Amino acid sequence: MLTLYTATTPNGWKVSIFLEELKSVYGLDYNVIKVDMGKFEQKEESFLKMNPNGRIPTIDDDGFFVFESAAILYYLAEKYDTKNLFFPAEFEKRVKVMELLFFQMSAQGPMQGQSNHFLRYAPEDIPYAKNRYQSETKRIYNVYERILKDQLYLAGNEYTIADMCTIGWAASATWAGVELTKDEYPNVVNWIERVRSRPAVESGLSIPTRNELIFGDWSKAESAAEAGKKMIKDQIENSSKSLL
Question: How far apart are CA 55 and CA 76, in angstroms?
C-alpha cells in the first residue's frame, strides 16, 4: 500500500490533497505517517533511506520511494490518474500544467517560504529581508492574478495538479505577511474560493493534522510562531540535522 510521510505544511498538503482527490474518484487507499520535524524524525536514518534530503513529503509506494512534492504529484498522476482527470493527456495542456508546477517550485514556494521565515521565525529582526521577500511574494501573486484573468484555474479552465501544488501556499499567504484581498487580487481570491470548495481539498488541508490558521482561527498564531522559532534554533544548533 502507498504510504505518505508528511507534516502540516504547504508542501505536504500538495500531496495529501491529490491523494484525497484520487481516493474520491478512484478509491485509492493509502496510509499517512506524521513526521515530527521538531524531533528531527526526518533526519533519522530510516527516513533518509527514503529521502536523502531529509524533508517532507515523501511517499513509499510498495518499496518505491519518491521525494520532492512536484515529483510526487507527477508520479501519482502518471500511475493512478488513469482517466487523466487531473493531468491532461494532450501534450500542450500537459506542458501548461508542468509550467505552473515549475513556477510554484521555483518562485511561490521559495519566496513565500523566506517571507515566512524572516517575518515569523528569524531570531533577529531584519527589515530588508522581510521587505525583500514580502515584495517578491506579492509580485508572484500578481503573476497569478494575471494568469487567472481569463481562466478558471492556473493551467486553463480545468482543475489540475498545478492548482493542488499552489493552493496550500496561497491559503497560507497571510502567515507570510501577504494579504490576498479581493480589492488587490480578485482573480486569485476567486480561484482560492473555487479550489477550496472541493471536499478533497479541504480534507487534504487537514492531513496529517488541522492547521487552524488556514481555516481562519488565529488564536494560536503566537504560540505557533514561537514553536517555529524554537525548531529553527534547534536546527541551527544541531547542524548535522539542519533543515536549513
Answer: 19
